[in-house]
């Protein structure tokens, strides 16, 4: 069996004891960002599975968008993660 060389760790252990792997992350072509997918990406960045730059490149996210997700999770405001990129733009008008 051949394992692809990864630059960083292959797994990280989250504070609750759960293990997060690269295979657990959403597909790179994800279009529909539900809360669970956002949580996985933010957790992967926060605990060093992937870098912030890698997450932004992999998922075509802006630094602002990823920061908003991180802030919402840090403040335990998961309801704000329900807003989509499209909805936020419409709400700004």
Secondary structure elements and their pairing?
Blueprint: E1 11-13, E2 19-21, H1 35-46, H2 52-59, H3 63-74, H4 85-91
Give a description of the structure.
The chain has a two-stranded antiparallel ribbon with strand order 1-2. 42% of the residues lie in helices and 6% in strands. Mean pLDDT is 85; it is low at 86-93. The protein has helices at residues 35-46, 52-59, 63-74, 85-91, and strands at 11-13, 19-21. The longest helix has 12 residues, at 35-46. With 93 residues, it is mainly α. The chain has a single domain (11-91), classed as Orthogonal Bundle (Arc Repressor Mutant, subunit A), CATH 1.10.10. Pfam families: DUF1153. InterPro entries: DUF1153, Trp_repressor/repl_initiator, WH-like_DNA-bd_sf. This is DUF1153 domain-containing protein.
Radius of gyration: 14 Å
Category by helix and strand content? mainly alpha
Spans where pLDDT lies below 50 across 5 or more residues: 86-93
Placed side by side, the strands forming the largest sheet appear as 1-2
H/E series, N to C?
EEHHHH
Biggest sheet details:
2 strands, antiparallel
Outline: globular
Protein name: DUF1153 domain-containing protein
Pfam families: DUF1153 (PF06627)
Organism: Roseovarius phycicola
Key terms:
disordered C terminus, Arc Repressor Mutant, subunit A, mainly alpha, 6% strand, 2 strands, 93 residues, two-stranded antiparallel sheet, single chain
